[in-house]
Amino acid sequence: MSTISALTFGIQVFVTLIVIIDPPGVMPIFLSLVSKYSVEEQRRLAWKTASVSLLVIIVFALFGQLILDYLKISLPALQGAGGLLLLLVALDLLIGNERKPADESDVNVALVPLGTPLLAGPGAIVATIIFVKQATSSSTSSVAMMAALLVAIVILHLFLGLVLAYSTGIIKIIKKSGVTLIARIAGLLLAAIAVQMIADSVRAFINA
Questions:
Q1: Cα(93)–Cα(23) distance, integer angstroms
Q2: For residue 48, which of 157, 154, 179, 187 has the smallest C-alpha distance?
Q3: Measured on CA atoms in the order 163, 168, 172, 177, is the torsion positive or negative?
């Protein structure tokens, strides 16, 4: 019964986080940001992005509540900050502001905005913190529940890495004009996501 409960919990974590992260919605944004790199670099960036997201999610799973409490940061504040950061990236995509390679290295792209807050955003972080509370307060063995949580997070990011790595083949088919179109659409979607995050943050502050 303990194993079944932990397995069910792990599946719940996987499904919830994959819905929040939304790989199909992330793909056009990822493609528009890595299109200037070679195919090998694009795939390397895909795995680096997934690795950064994995690291951020695990850190917040283990120490998230402690970090927020120590810095006196509320979850709405974290959500608002993530929204503002995404809005800046969205504006760059919408107006076609291409930066020089010296200004934006592949490491920076994998860290921000791809790894966080695009994948490991406020929604995924908040959900992870809530899952940790559920795991530690469960009547089932907390060790088994935490193990299921961490395994689900790792499997999720392996899946994300595969999705992003194989999505890079689309760039060769759609060519430069297609990439430009994707960038504009991605910018619009990302701006909408950012505005929604900021609106949710403001609403949470008002209702607090």
A1: 19
A2: 157
A3: positive
- Segment 41-98, tens digit of pLDDT: 999 999 999 999 999 999 999 998 898 889 988 878 888 887 887 788 788 778 865 5
Residue 195 is encoded by which pair of tokens?
């505005």
Domain ranges of the chain: 31-207
CA–chain centroid gap for 165, Å, is 15
- What does 35-84 look like in DSSP terms, one character per residue? TTS-HHHHHHHHHHHHHHHHHHHHHHHHHHHHHHHHHT--HHHHHHHHHH
Alpha-carbon span 182 to 171, nearest angstrom: 10
Burial class (CB in 10 A: 0-12, 13-18, 19+), 204: middle
pTM of the model: 0.76
